[in-house]
Protein backbone atom coordinates (compact mmCIF):
# COMPACT_ATOMS: atom_id res chain seq x y z
CA UNK A 1 0.00 0.00 0.00
CA UNK A 2 0.93 3.68 -0.19
CA UNK A 3 1.04 5.84 2.92
CA UNK A 4 1.99 9.40 3.77
CA UNK A 5 5.07 9.75 5.91
CA UNK A 6 7.62 12.29 7.10
CA UNK A 7 10.93 10.83 5.97
CA UNK A 8 14.34 11.60 7.45
CA UNK A 9 16.44 11.24 4.30
CA UNK A 10 19.57 12.68 5.92
CA UNK A 11 20.77 13.78 9.35
CA UNK A 12 20.33 17.48 10.18
CA UNK A 13 17.90 18.02 7.29
CA UNK A 14 14.18 18.76 7.68
CA UNK A 15 11.84 15.78 7.31
CA UNK A 16 10.20 15.47 3.88
CA UNK A 17 6.52 14.58 3.56
CA UNK A 18 6.15 12.01 0.79
CA UNK A 19 4.08 8.99 -0.20
CA UNK A 20 6.01 5.85 0.65
CA UNK A 21 5.38 2.18 -0.10
CA UNK A 22 4.48 -0.07 2.80
CA UNK A 23 4.35 -3.86 2.62
CA UNK A 24 1.61 -5.58 4.60
CA UNK A 25 2.18 -7.44 7.87
CA UNK A 26 4.05 -10.75 7.76
CA UNK A 27 3.65 -13.57 10.30
CA UNK A 28 3.39 -12.22 13.85
CA UNK A 29 3.06 -8.61 12.66
CA UNK A 30 0.26 -6.06 12.60
CA UNK A 31 -0.59 -3.13 10.35
CA UNK A 32 -1.53 -0.06 12.40
CA UNK A 33 -3.10 3.18 11.21
CA UNK A 34 -1.39 5.83 13.33
CA UNK A 35 -3.95 8.46 14.34
CA UNK A 36 -1.62 10.75 16.31
CA UNK A 37 2.04 10.94 17.27
CA UNK A 38 4.01 13.06 19.69
CA UNK A 39 7.45 14.47 18.90
CA UNK A 40 9.94 13.47 21.61
CA UNK A 41 13.40 14.94 22.11
CA UNK A 42 14.83 11.54 21.17
CA UNK A 43 13.45 11.96 17.63
CA UNK A 44 15.29 15.30 17.42
CA UNK A 45 18.46 13.77 18.81
CA UNK A 46 18.44 11.06 16.14
CA UNK A 47 17.56 13.51 13.37
CA UNK A 48 20.43 15.74 14.53
CA UNK A 49 22.87 12.86 13.97
CA UNK A 50 23.63 12.43 17.68
CA UNK A 51 22.40 8.83 18.01
CA UNK A 52 25.08 6.16 17.68
CA UNK A 53 22.36 3.87 16.33
CA UNK A 54 20.91 6.51 13.98
CA UNK A 55 20.16 5.28 10.45
CA UNK A 56 19.14 7.16 7.31
CA UNK A 57 16.93 7.26 5.36
CA UNK A 58 14.39 6.37 8.00
CA UNK A 59 10.90 7.10 9.28
CA UNK A 60 11.27 8.45 12.82
CA UNK A 61 8.60 8.75 15.53
CA UNK A 62 7.99 6.45 18.49
CA UNK A 63 5.20 8.12 20.50
CA UNK A 64 2.01 7.12 18.72
CA UNK A 65 -1.49 5.78 19.06
CA UNK A 66 -3.67 4.18 16.43
CA UNK A 67 -5.91 1.38 15.21
CA UNK A 68 -5.01 -2.13 14.09
CA UNK A 69 -6.13 -2.48 10.47
CA UNK A 70 -4.74 -5.91 9.53
CA UNK A 71 -2.96 -8.75 11.27
CA UNK A 72 -0.46 -11.26 9.91
CA UNK A 73 -0.59 -15.04 10.39
CA UNK A 74 -0.38 -16.27 13.96
CA UNK A 75 -1.38 -12.99 15.62
CA UNK A 76 -3.75 -13.72 18.50
CA UNK A 77 -3.58 -10.88 21.03
CA UNK A 78 -5.01 -8.10 18.81
CA UNK A 79 -7.48 -7.90 15.93
CA UNK A 80 -8.49 -5.31 13.34
CA UNK A 81 -10.27 -2.41 15.03
CA UNK A 82 -8.36 -2.64 18.32
CA UNK A 83 -6.87 0.63 19.57
CA UNK A 84 -3.19 0.33 20.34
CA UNK A 85 -0.07 2.18 21.40
CA UNK A 86 3.16 1.10 19.62
CA UNK A 87 5.92 0.01 22.00
CA UNK A 88 9.57 0.78 21.38
CA UNK A 89 10.19 -1.43 24.39
CA UNK A 90 8.16 -4.53 23.51
CA UNK A 91 7.05 -7.22 25.94
CA UNK A 92 7.32 -10.79 24.61
CA UNK A 93 6.84 -12.41 28.06
CA UNK A 94 9.16 -15.23 26.93
CA UNK A 95 12.74 -13.94 26.70
CA UNK A 96 15.29 -14.14 29.50
CA UNK A 97 14.75 -10.46 30.34
CA UNK A 98 10.94 -10.65 30.45
CA UNK A 99 11.07 -13.84 32.52
CA UNK A 100 13.64 -12.39 34.94
CA UNK A 101 11.06 -10.08 36.47
CA UNK A 102 14.02 -7.69 36.96
CA UNK A 103 13.71 -5.47 33.90
CA UNK A 104 11.34 -4.14 31.26
CA UNK A 105 14.05 -4.37 28.60
CA UNK A 106 12.64 -7.21 26.50
CA UNK A 107 15.38 -8.59 24.29
CA UNK A 108 13.26 -10.59 21.82
CA UNK A 109 13.69 -8.17 18.90
CA UNK A 110 16.15 -5.54 20.17
CA UNK A 111 18.93 -6.49 17.73
CA UNK A 112 16.87 -6.08 14.56
CA UNK A 113 15.08 -3.02 15.99
CA UNK A 114 18.47 -1.31 16.42
CA UNK A 115 19.27 -2.06 12.77
CA UNK A 116 16.07 -0.39 11.59
CA UNK A 117 14.40 -3.57 10.35
CA UNK A 118 11.62 -5.94 11.32
CA UNK A 119 12.46 -9.19 13.19
CA UNK A 120 12.91 -11.07 9.87
CA UNK A 121 15.70 -8.64 8.94
CA UNK A 122 13.80 -6.73 6.25
CA UNK A 123 12.07 -3.36 6.09
CA UNK A 124 8.40 -2.90 5.21
CA UNK A 125 9.02 0.70 4.02
CA UNK A 126 10.48 1.88 0.73
CA UNK A 127 10.48 5.01 -1.39
CA UNK A 128 11.01 4.92 -5.16
CA UNK A 129 12.46 1.43 -4.74
CA UNK A 130 14.93 2.51 -2.03
CA UNK A 131 14.67 0.87 1.40
CA UNK A 132 13.68 3.13 4.31
CA UNK A 133 14.63 2.13 7.85
CA UNK A 134 12.14 1.65 10.65
CA UNK A 135 12.91 3.64 13.84
CA UNK A 136 12.80 2.26 17.38
CA UNK A 137 10.54 -0.43 15.95
CA UNK A 138 7.70 2.12 15.63
CA UNK A 139 8.03 4.74 12.82
CA UNK A 140 4.98 6.67 13.95
CA UNK A 141 5.78 9.56 11.58
CA UNK A 142 4.03 7.41 8.97
CA UNK A 143 0.25 7.32 8.76
CA UNK A 144 0.42 3.53 8.52
CA UNK A 145 3.15 1.36 9.99
CA UNK A 146 3.88 -2.31 10.60
CA UNK A 147 4.82 -3.57 14.06
CA UNK A 148 5.52 -6.93 15.66
CA UNK A 149 2.54 -8.13 17.71
CA UNK A 150 4.68 -8.01 20.88
CA UNK A 151 5.25 -4.30 20.27
CA UNK A 152 1.66 -3.10 20.59
CA UNK A 153 -0.33 -2.46 23.76
CA UNK A 154 -4.10 -2.76 23.42
CA UNK A 155 -5.80 0.21 25.09
CA UNK A 156 -9.25 1.51 26.01
CA UNK A 157 -11.09 2.32 22.75
CA UNK A 158 -12.67 5.36 24.43
CA UNK A 159 -9.26 6.98 25.06
CA UNK A 160 -8.46 9.90 22.70
CA UNK A 161 -5.55 9.23 20.32
CA UNK A 162 -4.32 12.83 20.34
CA UNK A 163 -3.61 12.58 24.08
CA UNK A 164 -2.79 8.91 24.67
CA UNK A 165 -0.07 8.95 22.00
CA UNK A 166 2.03 10.76 24.64
CA UNK A 167 1.79 7.62 26.82
CA UNK A 168 3.77 5.90 24.07
CA UNK A 169 6.87 7.59 25.48
CA UNK A 170 6.91 10.81 27.54
CA UNK A 171 4.21 10.16 30.12
CA UNK A 172 5.20 6.56 30.80
CA UNK A 173 8.91 7.45 30.87
CA UNK A 174 8.49 10.25 33.41
CA UNK A 175 5.82 8.79 35.66
CA UNK A 176 7.29 5.27 35.42
CA UNK A 177 10.80 6.43 36.37
CA UNK A 178 9.26 7.59 39.66
CA UNK A 179 6.98 4.63 40.33
CA UNK A 180 8.90 1.70 38.77
CA UNK A 181 12.58 2.66 38.72
CA UNK A 182 13.13 4.90 41.75
CA UNK A 183 10.04 3.72 43.64
CA UNK A 184 9.88 7.15 45.28
CA UNK A 185 8.37 6.90 48.74
CA UNK A 186 5.87 9.36 50.27
CA UNK A 187 7.53 12.28 52.05
CA UNK A 188 10.69 12.14 49.89
CA UNK A 189 12.63 15.13 48.58
CA UNK A 190 12.94 14.94 44.81
CA UNK A 191 15.05 17.02 42.40
CA UNK A 192 14.21 17.02 38.68
CA UNK A 193 16.69 18.41 36.13
CA UNK A 194 15.08 19.49 32.82
CA UNK A 195 11.41 20.44 32.85
CA UNK A 196 10.43 19.40 29.34
CA UNK A 197 8.08 16.72 28.10
CA UNK A 198 9.74 14.12 30.34
CA UNK A 199 10.66 16.17 33.42
CA UNK A 200 7.12 17.47 33.92
CA UNK A 201 5.91 13.89 33.97
CA UNK A 202 8.52 13.05 36.61
CA UNK A 203 7.10 15.96 38.60
CA UNK A 204 3.51 14.77 38.25
CA UNK A 205 4.61 11.24 39.16
CA UNK A 206 6.44 12.50 42.25
CA UNK A 207 3.38 14.45 43.32
CA UNK A 208 1.15 11.42 42.71
CA UNK A 209 3.21 9.21 45.03
CA UNK A 210 3.26 11.83 47.78
CA UNK A 211 6.75 13.35 47.54
CA UNK A 212 7.25 16.25 49.94
CA UNK A 213 9.66 18.71 48.33
CA UNK A 214 9.76 18.61 44.51
CA UNK A 215 12.56 20.82 43.19
CA UNK A 216 12.71 21.59 39.46
CA UNK A 217 15.95 22.72 37.81
CA UNK A 218 15.98 24.31 34.36
CA UNK A 219 18.00 26.92 32.50
CA UNK A 220 14.80 28.19 30.85
CA UNK A 221 13.00 30.45 33.37
CA UNK A 222 9.69 29.94 31.54
CA UNK A 223 9.69 26.37 32.84
CA UNK A 224 9.07 27.53 36.43
CA UNK A 225 5.38 28.12 35.80
CA UNK A 226 5.10 24.78 34.03
CA UNK A 227 6.73 22.90 36.89
CA UNK A 228 4.52 24.53 39.51
CA UNK A 229 1.45 23.63 37.44
CA UNK A 230 2.22 19.93 37.98
CA UNK A 231 3.34 19.95 41.61
CA UNK A 232 6.86 21.41 41.73
CA UNK A 233 7.39 23.16 45.06
CA UNK A 234 10.74 24.92 44.38
CA UNK A 235 12.51 26.11 41.22
CA UNK A 236 16.22 26.60 40.63
CA UNK A 237 17.75 28.22 37.55
CA UNK A 238 21.39 27.04 37.46
CA UNK A 239 22.32 30.29 35.72
CA UNK A 240 21.23 32.22 38.81
CA UNK A 241 23.17 30.33 41.48
CA UNK A 242 26.93 30.06 41.98
CA UNK A 243 27.13 26.33 42.65
CA UNK A 244 23.98 24.42 41.72
CA UNK A 245 24.94 21.24 43.62
CA UNK A 246 25.75 23.07 46.86
CA UNK A 247 22.58 25.12 46.47
CA UNK A 248 20.40 22.01 46.05
CA UNK A 249 22.04 20.19 48.97
CA UNK A 250 21.29 23.17 51.18
CA UNK A 251 17.76 23.64 49.86
CA UNK A 252 16.89 19.98 50.51
CA UNK A 253 18.43 19.94 53.98
CA UNK A 254 21.30 17.58 53.11
CA UNK A 255 20.58 16.38 49.58
CA UNK A 256 17.88 14.82 47.45
CA UNK A 257 16.45 11.42 48.31
CA UNK A 258 15.86 10.98 44.59
CA UNK A 259 17.05 13.00 41.60
CA UNK A 260 16.27 12.62 37.90
CA UNK A 261 18.18 13.78 34.85
CA UNK A 262 15.76 14.66 32.06
CA UNK A 263 18.22 16.69 29.95
CA UNK A 264 20.60 14.19 28.31
CA UNK A 265 23.52 16.47 29.29
CA UNK A 266 26.32 14.48 30.95
CA UNK A 267 27.45 17.45 33.08
CA UNK A 268 23.89 17.73 34.40
CA UNK A 269 23.85 13.98 35.11
CA UNK A 270 26.86 14.53 37.38
CA UNK A 271 25.10 17.39 39.18
CA UNK A 272 22.04 15.19 39.61
CA UNK A 273 24.09 12.45 41.26
CA UNK A 274 26.08 14.79 43.44
CA UNK A 275 23.05 16.68 44.79
CA UNK A 276 21.90 13.35 46.27
CA UNK A 277 21.86 12.81 50.02
CA UNK A 278 25.00 11.26 51.47
CA UNK A 279 24.30 7.63 52.36
CA UNK A 280 21.22 7.03 50.20
CA UNK A 281 20.54 9.59 47.44
CA UNK A 282 19.47 7.79 44.26
CA UNK A 283 19.90 9.48 40.92
CA UNK A 284 18.01 8.22 37.88
CA UNK A 285 19.35 8.97 34.40
CA UNK A 286 16.51 9.32 31.91
CA UNK A 287 18.13 11.73 29.42
CA UNK A 288 19.77 10.25 26.35
CA UNK A 289 23.31 11.53 25.80
CA UNK A 290 25.00 12.28 22.49
CA UNK A 291 27.13 9.56 20.90
CA UNK A 292 30.60 9.57 22.44
CA UNK A 293 29.64 11.31 25.70
CA UNK A 294 30.49 9.67 29.01
CA UNK A 295 29.52 10.31 32.62
CA UNK A 296 32.03 11.01 35.39
CA UNK A 297 32.05 11.55 39.13
CA UNK A 298 34.45 10.95 41.99
CA UNK A 299 34.03 7.31 43.08
CA UNK A 300 33.79 8.75 46.60
CA UNK A 301 30.28 9.91 45.68
CA UNK A 302 29.27 6.25 45.35
CA UNK A 303 31.42 5.05 48.23
CA UNK A 304 29.43 7.43 50.39
CA UNK A 305 26.17 5.83 49.41
CA UNK A 306 24.84 7.69 46.40
CA UNK A 307 23.40 5.41 43.73
CA UNK A 308 23.36 5.91 39.97
CA UNK A 309 20.59 4.19 38.01
CA UNK A 310 19.10 4.47 34.53
CA UNK A 311 15.55 4.17 33.32
CA UNK A 312 14.26 3.27 29.86
CA UNK A 313 10.56 3.77 29.11
CA UNK A 314 10.06 4.38 32.82
CA UNK A 315 10.77 0.74 33.60
CA UNK A 316 7.31 -0.03 32.18
CA UNK A 317 6.41 -3.43 30.77
CA UNK A 318 4.57 -2.15 27.74
CA UNK A 319 1.71 -4.55 27.12
CA UNK A 320 1.00 -4.87 30.84
CA UNK A 321 1.57 -1.32 32.13
CA UNK A 322 0.63 0.97 29.22
CA UNK A 323 -3.11 0.06 29.29
CA UNK A 324 -3.05 0.82 33.04
CA UNK A 325 -1.49 4.24 32.48
CA UNK A 326 -4.18 4.95 29.88
CA UNK A 327 -6.75 4.13 32.59
CA UNK A 328 -4.95 6.46 35.06
CA UNK A 329 -5.40 9.20 32.47
CA UNK A 330 -9.05 8.30 31.79
CA UNK A 331 -9.81 8.40 35.53
CA UNK A 332 -8.00 11.74 36.04
CA UNK A 333 -5.20 10.28 38.15
CA UNK A 334 -2.64 11.85 35.79
CA UNK A 335 -2.90 14.83 33.46
CA UNK A 336 -1.88 14.95 29.83
CA UNK A 337 -3.96 17.60 28.05
CA UNK A 338 -2.20 20.76 29.30
CA UNK A 339 1.24 19.39 28.36
CA UNK A 340 0.19 19.08 24.71
CA UNK A 341 0.94 22.65 23.78
CA UNK A 342 0.83 22.31 19.99
CA UNK A 343 -1.23 20.20 17.59
CA UNK A 344 0.12 20.03 14.05
CA UNK A 345 -0.65 18.49 10.68
CA UNK A 346 1.92 16.07 9.25
CA UNK A 347 2.86 18.74 6.69
CA UNK A 348 3.97 20.99 9.56
CA UNK A 349 5.94 18.37 11.52
CA UNK A 350 9.23 20.27 11.15
CA UNK A 351 7.64 23.15 13.10
CA UNK A 352 7.29 20.73 16.01
CA UNK A 353 11.07 20.25 16.04
CA UNK A 354 11.64 24.03 15.92
CA UNK A 355 9.22 24.58 18.82
CA UNK A 356 11.08 21.96 20.88
CA UNK A 357 14.50 23.46 20.17
CA UNK A 358 13.32 26.97 21.03
CA UNK A 359 11.82 25.73 24.32
CA UNK A 360 8.34 26.99 23.34
CA UNK A 361 6.56 23.64 23.41
CA UNK A 362 6.19 20.94 26.01
CA UNK A 363 4.79 18.41 23.54
CA UNK A 364 3.80 18.88 19.94
CA UNK A 365 1.43 16.25 18.63
CA UNK A 366 0.86 15.50 14.96
CA UNK A 367 -2.69 14.42 14.14
CA UNK A 368 -3.12 12.54 10.85
P1 LIG B 1 12.69 18.61 26.12
O1 LIG B 1 13.50 19.29 25.07
O2 LIG B 1 11.21 18.76 26.09
O3 LIG B 1 13.17 19.07 27.58
C1 LIG B 1 14.51 19.22 27.95
C2 LIG B 1 14.55 20.27 29.06
O4 LIG B 1 15.88 20.31 29.60
C3 LIG B 1 14.24 21.67 28.57
O5 LIG B 1 13.27 22.28 29.39
C4 LIG B 1 15.59 22.40 28.68
O6 LIG B 1 15.44 23.80 28.94
C5 LIG B 1 16.21 21.66 29.85
N1 LIG B 1 17.67 21.78 29.92
C6 LIG B 1 18.56 21.76 28.90
N2 LIG B 1 19.83 21.91 29.37
C7 LIG B 1 19.71 22.01 30.71
C8 LIG B 1 20.67 22.21 31.75
N3 LIG B 1 21.98 22.33 31.49
N4 LIG B 1 20.21 22.27 33.03
C9 LIG B 1 18.89 22.17 33.30
N5 LIG B 1 17.94 22.02 32.34
C10 LIG B 1 18.36 21.95 31.07
O7 LIG B 1 13.07 17.06 26.03
P2 LIG B 1 12.23 15.79 26.55
O8 LIG B 1 11.35 15.29 25.45
O9 LIG B 1 11.66 16.12 27.86
O10 LIG B 1 13.42 14.73 26.71
C11 LIG B 1 14.38 14.90 27.74
C12 LIG B 1 15.48 13.87 27.61
O11 LIG B 1 14.97 12.57 27.90
C13 LIG B 1 16.09 13.76 26.22
O12 LIG B 1 17.48 13.49 26.35
C14 LIG B 1 15.39 12.54 25.63
O13 LIG B 1 16.14 11.97 24.59
C15 LIG B 1 15.31 11.66 26.86
N6 LIG B 1 14.30 10.59 26.87
C16 LIG B 1 14.66 9.41 27.44
C17 LIG B 1 13.74 8.39 27.56
C18 LIG B 1 14.11 7.12 28.23
O14 LIG B 1 13.35 6.14 28.12
N7 LIG B 1 15.21 7.05 28.94
C19 LIG B 1 12.45 8.57 27.04
C20 LIG B 1 12.12 9.79 26.47
C21 LIG B 1 13.06 10.80 26.38
N1 LIG C 1 20.25 4.58 20.56
C1 LIG C 1 20.89 5.28 21.64
C2 LIG C 1 20.17 5.15 22.93
C3 LIG C 1 18.77 5.69 22.88
C4 LIG C 1 18.05 5.33 24.14
O1 LIG C 1 18.64 5.24 25.22
N2 LIG C 1 16.75 5.13 24.04
C5 LIG C 1 15.91 4.88 25.19
C6 LIG C 1 14.55 5.37 24.84
S1 LIG C 1 14.49 7.07 24.46
C7 LIG C 1 12.86 7.31 24.11
O2 LIG C 1 12.63 8.59 23.85
C8 LIG C 1 15.78 3.39 25.47
O3 LIG C 1 14.70 2.86 25.71
N3 LIG C 1 16.84 2.71 25.50
C9 LIG C 1 16.88 1.30 25.68
C10 LIG C 1 17.11 0.59 24.38
O4 LIG C 1 17.13 -0.63 24.35
O5 LIG C 1 17.29 1.30 23.37
C11 LIG C 1 22.35 4.88 21.79
O6 LIG C 1 23.03 5.48 22.64
O7 LIG C 1 22.79 4.01 21.03
ZN1 LIG D 1 10.72 9.37 23.48
Automatic annotation (TrEMBL):
Q: Looking at the keywords, is Ion transport present?
A: no
Q: Which SUPFAM superfamilies does this one have? A: GroES-like (SSF50129), NAD(P)-binding Rossmann-fold domains (SSF51735)
Which reaction(s) are listed as its catalytic activity?
Answer: a primary alcohol + NAD(+) = an aldehyde + NADH + H(+); a secondary alcohol + NAD(+) = a ketone + NADH + H(+); S-(hydroxymethyl)glutathione + NAD(+) = S-formylglutathione + NADH + H(+); S-(hydroxymethyl)glutathione + NADP(+) = S-formylglutathione + NADPH + H(+)
Q: MF terms per GO, please?
A: alcohol dehydrogenase (NAD+) activity; S-(hydroxymethyl)glutathione dehydrogenase (NAD+) activity; S-(hydroxymethyl)glutathione dehydrogenase (NADP+) activity; S-nitrosoglutathione reductase (NADH) activity; zinc ion binding
Membrane-crossing residue ranges in chain numbering: none
**InterPro entries on file:** ADH-like_C, ADH-like_N, ADH_3, ADH_Zn_CS, ER, GroES-like_sf, NAD(P)-bd_dom_sf
- Which E.C. number(s) belong to this protein? 1.1.1.284
**Which Pfam families does the protein's record reference?**
ADH_N, ADH_zinc_N
Keyword set, alphabetical order: Metal-binding, NAD, Oxidoreductase, Zinc
Assigned GO CC terms: cytosol
The alphabetized list of GO BP terms reads: formaldehyde catabolic process
Kindly list the cofactors needed: Zn(2+)
Annotated Enoyl reductase (ER) domain residues: 13-366
Keyword Oxidoreductase in annotation: yes
Give the family, as the similarity comment puts it: Belongs to the zinc-containing alcohol dehydrogenase family. Class-III subfamily.
Q: What does this protein do?
A: Has high formaldehyde dehydrogenase activity in the presence of glutathione and catalyzes the oxidation of normal alcohols in a reaction that is not GSH-dependent. In addition, hemithiolacetals other than those formed from GSH, including omega-thiol fatty acids, also are substrates. Also acts as a S-nitroso-glutathione reductase by catalyzing the NADH-dependent reduction of S-nitrosoglutathione.
Protein's name according to its UniProt entry:
S-(hydroxymethyl)glutathione dehydrogenase
Q: Organism source for this protein?
A: Henriciella barbarensis
